[in-house]
Specification:
This protein is α+β, with helices and mostly antiparallel strands. It has helices at residues 88-100, 155-159, 167-179, 185-202, and strands spanning 11-20, 24-31, 37-44, 48-53, 59-67, 72-76, 79-81, 102-103, 106-114, 122-129, 132-133, 146-151. Strand 1 (11-20) and strand 2 form a beta hairpin. Helix 3 crosses helix 4 (185-202).
């Protein structure tokens, strides 16, 4: 194959369910370009959203919670699954308030990315301005943790620490927000702050 030739698509021959729980797993059978066949496990779960939530005094809201994969407490961005009938913005605002009790004054949807090569889940990211505490968190059964704030100046160090699961989406979202043109007036001040925040990391 030369550099100018398109990469051939695989041909899907069939699929069968393998597991159904909080996530579902199916096995897809493919015919590869060389004629061989190969089976691949695919994770089925709905799209998600995470929120980089800035307060009026230049802090960022985090939700510390125990995660069974890493088997440790992770300082995460608020977020969760997008419910049927919701869009990413609606879901992000709802998840932010449910998990932390904060509500944003304005939000910017910074797009989405694939969660993994063997999943169709899309990870959405919101940049939220003027987030204020309006209620107590409303955690679901089995959900526990601690809500806290960190200085916005410490956010990038936290994102590159390798200690949370949505760092890549958050960094991409912050860059998209910083480059966006004609953001609504309630987001303009935060956009200037984010550009300043990113400047030492992009020089």
């Amino acid at each position: 194959m030369t550099a100018d030739e398109p990469v051939p698509r695989w041909i899907k021959l069939g699929t069968e369910p393998m597991y159904a729980g909080y996530v579902r797993v199916r096995r897809d059978q493919y015919r590869l370009p060389d004629g061989s066949e190969s089976g691949w496990d695919v994770i089925e779960i709905g799209d998600t959203v995470s929120v980089v939530a800035f307060t009026p005094d230049d802090r960022v809201v985090l939700f510390d919670q125990y995660r069974v994969g890493p088997e440790r407490v992770i300082a995460e961005l608020p977020g969760g699954l997008i419910d049927p009938g919701e869009d990413a913005v609606e879901a992000g605002i709802r998840e932010l308030q449910e998990e932390t009790g904060y509500r944003p004054g304005a939000v910017f949807h910074a797009g989405a990315e694939w969660a993994a090569a063997n999943s169709r889940r899309r990870k959405n990211i919101l940049i939220a301005a003027d987030c204020v505490r309006v209620a107590e968190p409303q955690w679901e059964a089995g959900e526990t943790g601690r809500v806290r704030e960190i200085l916005a100046a410490a956010l990038l160090e936290h994102l590159v620490s390798g200690e949370l699961s949505d760092a890549g989406a958050a960094l991409r979202g912050l860059h998209a927000f910083a480059r966006a043109g004609d953001v609504p007036a309630p987001l303009a001040g935060l956009q200037r702050s984010v550009r300043t925040l990113l400047a030492p990391w992009t020089a």
